[in-house]
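[User] I have long wanted to understand how a fold can be written as tokens. Those tokens are not coordinates but codes from a learned vocabulary of shapes. Could you go through the record with me and say what the backbone is doing? Thank you; the sequence and its tokens follow:
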Amino acid sequence: MSGEFVQILPYVLGATGAGILAGLLPLIWAPNVHARSAIQHFAAGVVVAAVASDLIPEVEKIGRPAGILAGFAAGGVFMIGLKWLVVNFEQKHKGKHKLPVGIAAAAAVDTLVDGALISAGFSTGQQLGSLLAIALAIELFFLTLSVGSEFRKSKAKGWQGVAVTTAIALLLVVGALIGFLLFRDVSQPTLAIVLSFGAAALIYLIAEELLVEAIEAEENLFSTAMLFAGFLVLLALKLFTR
């Protein structure tokens, strides 16, 4: 892996801090439908840019067709399976749990995967790793804001929402450390499989979490513009830092 974990850590901690901050916001602010939609669209634009402009091209460069397709398929199956588990859990325990356990568990698993993906990205180069860290920081901001907002809606005590969202955010560090230990000595084709898996997970997030909820929430031209703004911001970062 390019560099030691200590070189990756500032990026991971920055993204983790964004998640912790977003988890605190519901204590003082309940985002309305317009604000949530704008944040979701912006996050989706950033993640699309990361996948399209860096992640997929890097995978194509270092990987082999069979491994790339297998990794992507595995990522898709994993995310579909995760959704099935969450939906099944919520249906079985509907009315039994006042707290949003399902969404919190899904966010926790997603954050672990994101942390490992950041480490895998840094293993191929500074630019991919840093751009993934920025994109996933914005994604984590949205995730913990959403989880915190759900805790607030459920009338849970403030400290409960903060404790859960902080724990979710800290899982990014755990995932990054696990990813560093697992992927630091692997071959480039193996890294391509891992990154393909991550690309599928991010595409699932865009299609099934960010845009679906945002579009269902409202139809607003400003929110649509935020989608392109998010894409442009990350694309500009790539162009001016390469």
The chain has a mean pLDDT of 85. The chain has one domain: 5-26+33-241.
